[in-house]
Write a structure and sequence with these properties.
Helix content: 40-55%
Number of helices: 13
Number of domains: 1
CATH architecture: Alpha-Beta Barrel
Number of strands: 10
Shape: globular
Largest sheet: 8 strands, parallel
Strand content: 5-15%
CATH superfamily: Aldolase class I
Distance between the termini: 38 Å
CATH class: Alpha Beta
Structural class: alpha/beta
Radius of gyration: 19 Å
Strand order of the largest sheet: 8-7-6-3-2-1-10-9
Length: about 350
Amino acid sequence: MKLQDLIANAKMLVADNKGLLAMDESNPTCNKRFAKLGIPQTEEARRSYRELIVTTTGLGESISGAILYDETIRQQKKDGTPFIKIIIDAGIIPGIKVDTGAKSMAGHPGEKITEGLDGLRERLKEYFKMGARFAKWRAVIAIGDGIPSQGCIEANAHALARYAALCQEVGLVPIVEPEVLMDGYHTLEKCSEVTEKVLRTVFNQLYTQRVTLEGMILKPNMILPGLKCPRQETVDEVADATVKCLLRSVPASVPGIAFLSGGQSAELASARLNEMSVRFKSRLPWALTFSFSRAIQQPALEIWQGEESNLLAAQQALYHRAMCNRAARRGEYNSLIERKGI
């Protein structure tokens, strides 16, 4: 694939006020969510749930790309139609999660390193042949006593950059996801400090590995206080802190920034993105959009409960959540839209 095509795909992923749907949960993660709702933890249940998602009418109105898991990209509807064909026919670009998970980092208690570089070039070639046009790799950075360490930040940044370079080599747009976790008692200011350090390190590594910044998407956390922090800042304070941090650390050549939801409620994730759009959209060098998982899927999953009779209502909830986030990108999300739909 030519570099121009790679750059064009990156731009398409953040165009038209659309965003990304992360439906790349690993089988263990998906099974945990099913278990909480009493849904059978089987391959067929996972297939049925993913069919619910990809066959939702009108999903492509708000979703530009769908991040899949290895099992999902190989699955089909009951009638034998491959999921990837359904996604492409809906005008959605298929993507694929390619890391193999965050594991405990040797010599760094309480910290993790994401694995999956071994054999990655061959796997990326296979996914491209299957129809994927972008990929995702997630690194996790925890804030706590004495962490994150410089060693953890640098190791994860290096892995993200090597992954990104391999993606671009085969024609896949890399989604670079360094997530500073919400867990803990840390303040919004501490999150900002750590996130800026992480992003600066990541982009230094991306430069070193000769990644074309115009052909990638950044998927960061918003700047948020820890979930256990006594002070929880307002929506506008979060918007201010997030944009300030990104302006300090993300080069203007990156076409788009797609926020992860990271455990935020569906409504708060939409409201915070909306506030950034209202206050800063016309002044930013890159597009701001969403790449949410639970913040789009969870309401639909809770309605579905594994029951065929709940399918339509669950799809309506999924469609509504996606449309709420498209409205947030436009700076038009409000409580009326939340309650009544669009």
